[in-house]
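Re: folding output
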Amino acid sequence: MTKQVLLISTLALAVLMSCSPAADDQESQAYSIPASDSEALLQGLTEFEEHAEAVRIRANAGLFADAAIYGKAVAWALRHPEEFYTADYTQNAYKALEVAKKRLTALEGGTTPWTHDKGYVVRAYRSRVDGSLQPYGLQIPESYNGEPTRLDVWLHGRGGTLTEVSFIAAHDPAFPHDDALSVPRSQNYIQLDVFGRTNNAYRWAGETDIYEALADVRRDYNIDPDLITLRGFSMGGAGAWHVGLHNPSQWAAVEAGAGFNETLIYAKQADLPAYQLAALTIYDVYRYALNAFNVPTVGYGGEIDPQLQASVNVREQLQEEGFTFTKDESHWTTDDLKALFLIGPETPHRWHPASKTESSAFIDANLPRTVPDHVRFVTYTTAYPDAYWVRIEGLDSHYERAEIDAQRSPDGVVVKTTNVRALSLTTSNRTYEIDGQAISGAGANPSFIKSNGIWSVGRLSDPQKRPSLQGPIDDAFREAFLVVRPTGTALAPDAHAAALKRMERFQTEYAKWMRGDVPVVNDTDLTAEQIAGNHLVLFGDSGSNQVLARILDDLSPLEWTAEGLKVAGQDYDVAANLPVLIYPNPLNPDRYVVVNSGHTFGETEFLGTNALLFPRLGDWAVLSTADESTVAAGLFDEQWR
C-alpha cells in the first residue's frame, strides 16, 4: 500500500487482544465493545482494505479519500478500543463500513453521487503533514447552483468523546439521528465543519487541518474568496480568535464565541521558565488584537460564562491600542473599527439567541472582504508573518511585539515598523518610505532589509529566522515531516536508548491525539526527494543515525562525540545527557532538522485543557537520560546562534 492507506490490518492480533479490557478496566469503563463486535468489524475492515487497494490505483486521489475516510474511522477506533464510549459507537462503526463500501463501489463504477449531494455531506483529504486521512463536514444549501458562493468555516468545541466515527456520524444523514439533518432553507452559504484532528484547539497540525480542509472544499465547490468567514464557539471560539487574529487577511469576518486566548490565568500556570514564557506569545493571541483593524470581528460570551473573559481580553487590548468603545447592557461598540463585542444576558456557556442573530447580521453587513490600503499588523513570530500586501520577512527579536503600519496611495507607500528588520510588499511600482527613510529604485513587489537602522532594497541571507523557519521545536509538526529512525551502533548507548524511548512515545501519542501515523524511514533509506519535501526528525546519535552523522558538523550549536557533548556553548556529560534541538536543515535550508524530539508536550497536556499545548523546550534543550528531565533549554537568536 502507499503511505498510510489505512494501516490497520498489520495490527489485527494486537487489536483483538486489546478490545476486551481487563476486569479492573471494565469496572471503570461504562461500556466496552464486545469481542464479537471487534472481530466482526476487523473482518469487515480487512475486506474493505482489500477492495480499497484495488480501487485506489484507478481512482482520483481526492475522491478515493472520501471513501477511505470511513474505513480510517473504523481503523482508528479498533486501534484505540477505549474510544468505543457507548454502544452507539459500535453501531456507527458498522454503519461507517457500510457507507465506505458503497462509496468504493460507486468509485469503481465511475460515479461519485456524494459530490453532487445537497444538505449534510462528509468528505475528506489526505494531509500533507503526515499522509493521514482527515474528514470534514459540509452543509450544502439547496440554493447552491455552482455560482460563486459564501463559505462559513465552523470550528467545533471540545468533545471528550470526539472521534472520526462520532464526527462522521454527526455529519452524515445516512447514520441514525434523533432529528433529521437538514440545512435551513434560509441558509444561502456553504458551511465547512472542520474536524481539527479532534481536541487540540486548532494548534499545530490541528491548525493546518483548517487550511487543508478549506483548500479541499475550494477545489470542488465555487467559493468566493472574498466571502469566507471564520466562526467558532468554546474551544472553537479559542480557535477562531487564534486563527482569525493570526491571519486576518484570510477571512471576510471572524466570529469568536467564548473560548480562551491566554495561558497563565486560564490554564493556571505559574513559575514558567523564560523560554516557555517567551513561547506563550505564539498562542496568547489577545496580544494580536490590533489585527482586528483589518477584519470585521465579533467577540461573544455569556454574562455568567467564565469564558466571556476571552472576549474581554481582546476588547481591553484594543482599548490599550487606542480604540474607543461604548457599552450598554449587552454590547460594546466602536466607531473606530468594524468590531462588535456581545454579552448574552444571564447566559451561561452557550449563545444567547438574540446575540447570535445580532452577530450574524453584523457579519452579513460587513461582507465582502476588501483589500485595504491601510494595513496595521502585529506579530510576535514569523510563523504568522503577513496581512494582505504586507509581509514581515525577519524580526529584530522573536517573541517580542513586532508591528507594521503601512499605507499606500497612488503617490507611494509609507511604512512604519517596530521590531522588524526585513519586509516585503506586494504592490505595483511606487515610491517607498520606511520609518521616515525614502528608498529609491525598489520597483514593484519589493523586499527591504534594515542594517544598523538603515533600510535598503534587499533580502536577508541565511541562516536567519524567517517565515516558516523560526522554531520552536513544535513548529516542525505543522507541515510535512519525516522521522528518520536510527539503524546503526550508538556512540552513547544511554542517550541512544533515551532517544528511542522518545521516538516511540511520540509515535504512540501522535497517533492517539493528532489522528495520524508518524511517517518513518530508516536512516539508510532516506532519499533526496524526502529531504526536499519534509522536515527531518532525527533520532539517535551520530553513530546510530547516519543522517545525523552526515550533517553534525553543520549543526553549529551541537558538538557530540563519544567523548563529549557541547550544546549552545556549554559542556555536558555525554553519558548522562541527551541533546534536543531544531535547526535549519544543512541538506535543505528551507526545511527544519529536529534532533531527538517530537512534540515537546504529551499525553498529560492533551488530556488537560487545550491551553496547555504550548512549547516546553524552546529551540534547544539538554535532557537527562535517566528520567528525561530538563537539564537546560533555551531559544536561539535571529541567526540561529
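--- second protein (sequence, then structure) ---
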Amino acid sequence: MKANKFFLALSMICVLGISSSCDILNGDSIRENFAKENTNPTDVMTPEPSYMLTACQLAFQVYDYLYWFYNQSLYTKWSQMGSTGAYGEGSFGVGTAVHWQNNYITMLNYRNDMDNFIATQDHPEMKAYSAMCGVLAVYGAIYSSDINGDIQYSEASMYKYGGSLTPGYDRVEDLYDMLVEDIDRYIAIFQDDTQVIIGKQDLIYGGDVTKWAKMANTLKLKIAARLYLNNPEKAKQLVTSVANSGVGYIDSMEDAFIFHKADSSTGGDDAYQTGNGLAGYLSNASNNVLNFMKAAKDPRIRFFYNKNSFNSKIVQCFIDEGRYEDLPGFVKDNIERDAQGNFVKWTGDGEPWVRYQGIPIVFRDSDEYKPLVGEYFDYAQRYTVTVGKSTKGYSIYSAFNEEMVRGRVDFTLPTVPEGPVKQDTEDVPWWGMYLGAGETNLYLAEFAQLGLALPKSAESYYNRGVELSVKEWDYIAGKNKIPYYGTTYDYDPNEVSIELKDGEIATMLETPAVKFTGNNAEKMEKIYLQQLMNFSMMPNDQFVTARRSGYPKIGSSLLPFVKFKEIELTAIPRRFEFATPLITDIMHDIRLQNLQDQGFTPGTAQSGMGFATTTVLNTERLWQDKNAPQWGSAKN
C-alpha cells in the first residue's frame, strides 16, 4: 500500500509539470530509476563472495540429524565400534532411508557462484573466498565418495553456467586426483598476497589464509589413507609432500578445523547442529571398546560416552530397598561394603571409570546371550526402584554423548526416588571437530610405520597424535558443556568430574594398551586403534578406518572383533544399498550405467529396499575398498 501511494504521488507530480523527466516513468524505466528509492540500503541485491562465504559455511554440514539418525548406528554395528543391542540374523540389513552425504554439492554451488562473480565483475582479489568454500567442497566430496563410491564432481553444479543438466560421474580413483589438483590450486590462492579478506565473514579461521592452506594441505592425508590399498606409491607421494611442505599442516589445536557456527541463534538450528532429539537412535557403547579404553586409562571415554546412572547414592538406594542382588554384576564387583552391607567406596578403577559400561557384542540366539538377558536386556524392569510414591528407572550402560553431537540437550542428574531434581537445560551452541592435529599425526604415524621416510619417527608422530587427540576432545567437551564437565552437581560425595586431569595423558601413554612397543604388527594395531578412538564422534571416518584396516581384529588381546558362529563375515555389509533408479529420473540411464560400472547390484525396489542378501553389500565393494581385508581380519 505504501508503494502504491508513492507512485500515485509521483504521477501527480508529473501531471503538474513539477518534474521535467516524467516521460521516462514507464515499465522497466520506472524500476531502474527508482530502484534506489525502493531498496533498503542494508539489503544486498548482488551477493558478493564475502557474504556468500558466510552462507556457504553456515550451510556446511557433514554430520547432520539424518546422518546420526540413520547411518551412525549401522556404521558402528558393522565395525563393532558400538552396539545397538544383541546382534541377530536380520540386524545387518539396511533400512529404507540412508543419508547419502551430498552436502558437497551445496558447497560447489557456492564456489561456482563465487567464481562467476569474480570473473564477471573482475575481482581477482576475492578468489580466496571461493577457495575457502572449495576446500569445504573437497572435504564433503571425500565423505560422499566414502559412501557412494563414484560421485558427480567435475561436471556438477554447472548447469546455469553452460554445464550439463545431467552431469556424469567421476570414478573414485580419478576423483582423488581431481581433489588433490583442486587443493593445490586453492593453496596457491591462499599464498597470493593480493587477496583481500574480510575476516569476520569467515566463521572458521577468521580470514587467516595460512590456516586455510594448512587445512587444505592436511586433507591430502585423508585422501592418501583411502588411496593406499589401491595405489600405495601415489599415497606415499601425497604423504611425503604434506610432511615436507612449506605450507605446513594441522599440527596444533590452534590450527585444527574446529567449527563453531554461532554463539547464539534467534531462530533455526544452525548454532546447535540440530534441534531434533537423538536419544534412542545413537549407538550404545560396546563393552569391548569401553574395556579397551579403560585399560588404556583413556580420558576420552568420558567425553565420548555418558556415565551410567549408578552413582553411589543410587547404589545405596538399591541396598536400602533390599535390592542389592539386582544390581549389575559390574557394580557389585567394584564397591566395598561395611558390615551392615552399606556402600563404603568404589574399588577397582574407581570413579569416574566404573560408571562407563557398554553392552556385550553377542549373537541373540547364542548360548552366550541367554545368561545376559536379565542383566543387560531386561534392564527396564530390573533397574526400576520405588521409594514411597515415587518410582524411577536407571540406565546401566553408556551411550554416545548426545551433547557432543548437538547443542540442545537437557540433562537430568540421576537421583533416588523422592530425591532432589537437578537439571542442566541450557542450550549450548555446538562445537564440532572436523579435522584435528591428533588425526593428522596418527596418519603420519601410520605411514612412517609402513616404512615411509618422514621427518619424524612413527613413535614420535604416534605419541603426539594421542596427546593432541585427547586435548582436542577435552576442549570440545568443555565447549559443549557436557554433563559432569567441571562439576559434580553437589549431590553424590563420591562423584568425580570428567574434565582432563593433570598427568592423565602421560599415564595413558605408559599403559601396555597404548605404549608404542612390540613388533611391527603390534605397533600397527596400536596406531589403527588410536585412529578408531579419535574418530569416535566422527563415525564416517571411524567406519572407513575399520573397513580399510581390518581392525578391530579377531583374537586381538587389545580390542577383539567378535566372530559369530551363526553368521559369516561376508554377511556383514561394507557399504549401503543402491536402489534401482526411477524410470522417471532424468539421470536414470547415467545412474544405472554408473552402478554397472562399479559392479553393483541395485536394489529391486525403487524405495531403496529389496537387496537379496547382505553378502552383496560385502562382496560388491567400492573401489577404495577392493583390496581391504575382511572385517576383523587385519593383514598386519
